[in-house]
Amino acid sequence: MTRRIPDSARLLPWSGPEGKPCYVLGDGAGYVSRFADNVESVQLGMAVELLDHVADMLDDRQVTSAQLRFVVARLAESLRDVHRIAESRGERHAAPSAGPEG
Description:
- By secondary structure, the protein is mostly helical.
- It contains two helices and two strands, in the order E-E-H-H.
- A hairpin with a 5-residue loop joins strand 1 and strand 2.
């Protein structure tokens, strides 16, 4: 059975129990939406910092395989976060406008 997500639903940047997606309903001005905006901002900032760190590691010929495995795992986590943010923003962008010119 497929559940329909309301047009005003926003995919949040964190998962619920068992890794299931979390949504908030509303106009985007509430506490949970503002908190989600802050979490997304932190996640995107961390992704930029991680990319800078990776660039430094790639220039260092003494980086160990264990260090590379660790940073690749962090890159995968960051990519999942950024993908969820893009998915959430894409859903919000594609949602029909509530205005009369809609």
